[in-house]
Amino acid sequence: MNLQQNIIDKLKREVAPVTGCTEPVAVALACAKARELLDSNLIEKVSIKLSPNVYKNGLAVGVPHTGEVGLNIAAALGLVACKSSHSLALLNTVKNKDVVRAKEFLKNNNIKIAIEDIDEKVYVKVELSSKCASSTAIIQGAHDNFVYLEQNGNTLKERLSQNENKISKKDCIYNEKISNIITAIESVQLSEIQFLLEGISMNKKVAAYGLKNKCGMGVGYTLNSYLKDGMLSDDVIAHAERLTAAASDARMSGVTLPVMTSNGSGNNGLTAILPIVAYQEKIDVTEEKLAKALAISHILNSYVKHYIGRLSPICGCGVAAGLGAGAAITWLMDGTIKQIEGTIQNILGDICGMICDGAKVGCALKLSTSATIAVKSALLASKDQIIPAGNGIVGKTPEQTIRNLRDLANKGMEGADATIIAAMLPK
């Protein structure tokens, strides 16, 4: 399979809509599957074990339909109402009566949620039991990837050897130079990637909601209010900042609107798409160029996250999705490969230290920063203002810098997640 086809296949796998933050959604999905396997309507024991990253990202984020935050309500919805066949869209079908049932379940049952000491970034294990039945469901590697199913002691599915960082033949794009990836995308037919344009309308709706309604921290809403006073301008950078922040405000507060994800993350999807939308709303762009810019953004987000992990101590919205958006904007500005690579160097030289301290309403601030840095770095690189190699973790090539970032995330920040979780938990 050639590089171009690999890219198209990767985009079809990694760009998908979801309602709600993907970590609590994954917990709800695993709970729904385990409930379906349980040969009993009466659940007596619920044990949920999560990787530190899933736990961190699900602890304080809003869950759609419920008016609540956290993992317990997401798990309860999965146990009483959701269908696993709906995959990551399973919260779309939740009704008010389901929320009532879920809250009643929490009153009458003890859901035990614990952190599993595991290297996998994405890991959810749900074990259910009744007097005469038991079931187990494990998600690993990706938010909708079931690797183990068990019913009454009988193994139905087992693929526990998966390693998300192992490069398979279909993922060989991660060994490619970024310049080769961009060249391949440039020659893709519009019909092959036109589906990516759906993410624009979807994520713009979420942003519009956050601009009109003060939800979450109201970052986008508040910044937008300063336009009337002349305190802020309406340039590309400010527009990208407001759009992306407003969308995160809405999503992190649990607003029931789907977003287009990127590499399994809704906030990554917002950051990978909306700065490009901000540029397109200021500068006329053809549909074909817009689709290819989105392809560049999503693929580079996936590229970086392959090395640092789908979930990481470092904020993927900044160093991965923001990087993708910035590189795509440089490409839209007819930047050279050197300038596109320079945008990557500028972004990683700027915000490589932005930590991920869980999904929450405060993420709107980080997304606003990521969007700003994406556009600013593109503007600088397009004038050949590029951070030199040897400045911090910046290497001679963007590929080397990304590998340096990998080492920072996986070696240099070992133990960071445990420290962050300890700070997040009630004292």
Automatic annotation (TrEMBL):
Gene Ontology MF terms in the entry: L-cysteine desulfhydrase activity
The chain positions of domain Serine dehydratase-like alpha subunit read 171-422
The biological process GO terms on file are: L-cysteine catabolic process to pyruvate
Chain segments annotated as transmembrane: none
What sections of the sequence does the record tag as coiled-coil? none
UniProt keyword list: Lyase
Q: Which Pfam families match?
A: SDH_alpha (PF03313)
Similarity section: Belongs to the UPF0597 family.
Concerning HAMAP family, the annotation shows: UPF0597 (MF_01845)
Stated name of the protein = UPF0597 protein PRVXT_001005
Q: Which organism is it from?
A: Proteinivorax tanatarense
